[in-house]
Write a structure and sequence with these properties.
Elements: E1 16-25, E2 28-38, E3 43-47, H1 54-61, E4 69-74, E5 77-80, H2 86-93, E6 96-99, H3 111-122, H4 127-140, H5 156-168, E7 174-178, H6 186-201, E8 205-209, H7 213-219, E9 222-227, E10 230-235, H8 237-242, H9 247-257
Parallel strand pairs: 3-8, 3-9, 6-7, 7-8
Antiparallel strand pairs: 1-2, 1-4, 4-5, 9-10
Helix pairs in contact: 3-4, 3-5, 4-5, 5-6
C-alpha cells in the first residue's frame, strides 16, 4: 500500500490568522469582522454568553462552517471565499483536530477501533502504526485499560477522553475544543479538564470554547470574549479577570463570578 506522507510540522508565526471574517446564517450575522491570530503552542480560551458566536468561530477555523467575507490562513494554507473546495477542507482537516460537546464515537466499535479507523482509512497509515498511536494516546488520557471496551461501557467523561485521544492519533498541529465538558455530569468535568491541562503542558496549540472560567484562567495564555458575533476584548487571564476594559465584559464577569 502506498503511504501518504505525513504533513510536515510547520515553522510559522501564526498557526491561525483570521482577517475580517464575516459569516451569516441567512439574515443572521453570526460572525462580525473577526480578527484573530494564534501562535504555535498558544492556548486560547474563548468565552461569552450563549449565542455569541463562539462555536461558530472555531467551526469556521476548520471549515466545518464556511465564511462569506474575509480571508484566513490556517497552518500555512491561505483561505479565501473563492478557493474553499473539498480538497481545501481535507487539507485543513489534516492539520486540525476537533473535540465536540458530544463524543461522536462509533458505538459498534471498541475504543481501539475508534482510534485506529481514522488513521488507517483516512490517512492510509499502517495498522501497526495506528495501533501504536492509539495505545500511546490512550496512555496520555489515562484510558489504556479500557482499550477493548465499547462506548456504552464508559462514562461520559471516559468517552470524552477517548474522543481527545482519537483526535491526537491524527497528529494535529492544533486542537479545537467546543465546550468539551458541556455534555458531562458535574462530577465528571474535572477528569476531562485535567487531561486538557496535561496536553497544554506538553505544548499543544489549542483553542477552547468553554464556560469553565476557573479552568480558562488556569490554562489559557489569552482569553477572548465574544458577544453578538464580535470579539469584544482579549487579554492575558489576570488582566481579563482583574482589569476588564469593556463594560460588556465587566457585566459578564459580574454575572458569572457572583452567580
Amino acid at each position: 500500500m502506498h503511504k501518504k506522507k505525513k504533513p510536515q510540522k510547520l515553522d510559522l508565526k501564526y498557526l491561525i490568522d483570521m482577517q475580517m471574517i464575516n459569516k451569516w446564517f441567512g439574515d443572521y450575522h453570526v460572525l462580525r469582522d473577526i480578527n484573530l491570530s494564534i501562535t504555535p503552542n498558544e492556548k486560547v480560551a474563548v468565552c461569552g454568553p450563549s449565542g455569541s458566536g463562539k462555536s461558530t468561530l472555531i467551526r469556521t477555523i476548520n471549515l466545518l462552517e464556511e465564511f462569506q467575507q474575509g480571508c484566513m490562513e490556517v497552518c500555512g494554507l491561505k483561505l479565501e471565499v473563492s478557493n474553499i473546495t473539498k480538497k481545501t477542507k481535507r487539507e485543513v482537516n489534516n492539520r486540525i483536530g476537533m473535540v465536540f460537546q458530544q463524543f461522536n464515537l462509533f458505538p459498534h466499535l471498541t475504543v481501539l477501533q475508534n482510534l485506529t479507523v481514522g488513521p488507517i482509512w483516512g490517512r492510509k497509515i499502517s495498522r501497526q502504526e495506528a495501533i501504536h498511536r492509539a495505545k500511546k494516546y490512550l496512555n496520555h488520557v489515562h484510558m489504556y485499560e479500557f482499550i477493548d471496551k465499547y462506548p456504552n461501557e464508559l462514562s461520559g467523561g471516559q468517552q470524552q477522553r477517548v474522543a481527545i485521544a482519537r483526535s491526537l492519533c491524527l497528529h494535529p498541529d492544533i486542537l479545537l475544543f467546543d465546550e468539551p465538558t458541556a455534555a458531562l455530569d458535574p462530577e465528571l468535568v474535572n477528569e476531562v479538564l485535567q487531561v486538557i491541562e496535561e496536553l497544554a503542558a506538553k505544548g499543544m496549540t489549542m483553542v477552547i470554547v468553554t464556560h469553565e472560567m476557573g479552568f480558562a484562567r488556569n490554562i489559557a495564555d489569552r482569553i477572548v470574549f465574544m458577544d453578538q458575533g464580535q470579539i469584544i476584548e482579549e487579554s492575558p487571564p489576570d488582566q481579563f479577570f482583574d482589569q476588564p476594559r469593556s463594560e460588556r465584559l465587566k457585566a459578564f464577569l459580574g454575572q458569572i463570578l457572583n452567580h
